[in-house]
């Protein structure tokens, strides 16, 4: 019989229970799925051995910074807005 393992987010000192899974491979796979959808720290805990059996940490994808020659939609909007507000010298 496979052991029921518990998946937690956070750290062992500040943990939040997420769910349980049967067996180490199933629990590890589920932990990775959770970490992929909601970045952060996760670990698997075994009640029978009172130990952390696996852990992972994922990070959110940083937003790409536009190249200096690219103009963002916000920059274009403000350029157009400011152009409309500039009085015509004629």
Report a brief summary of the structure:
With 90 residues, the chain is α+β, with helices and mostly antiparallel strands. It has a domain at 4-57. The chain is built from two helices and four strands, in the order E-E-H-E-E-H.
Walk me through this protein's architecture:
Strands 2-1-3-4 form a four-stranded antiparallel β-sheet, with helices on one face. It is α+β, with helices and mostly antiparallel strands. It starts with a strand and ends in a 5-residue tail after the last helix. The protein has a domain at 4-57. It contains two helices and four strands. The longest helix is centred in the middle third of the chain and has 14 residues, at 24-37. 11% of the residues are buried.
Which SSEs are present, and which pair or pack?
Layout: E1 4-11, E2 14-22, H1 24-37, E3 41-46, E4 51-57, H2 73-85
Antiparallel strand pairs: 1-2, 1-3, 3-4
Cross-sheet strand order for the largest sheet: 2-1-3-4
- Please state the average pLDDT score: 85
Instruction: Tell me about the largest β-sheet.
Output: 4 strands, antiparallel
Low-confidence stretches: none
Number of strands: 4
N- to C-terminal separation?
87 Å
The geometry reads as rod-shaped
How many alpha or pi helices? 2
Tell me the structural class: alpha+beta
Radius of gyration: 24 Å
- The fraction of residues in strands falls at 25-35%
Helix content: 25-40%
Succession of helices and strands:
EEHEEH
Defining traits:
33% strand; 30% helix; alpha+beta; 2 helices; four-stranded antiparallel beta sheet; rod-shaped
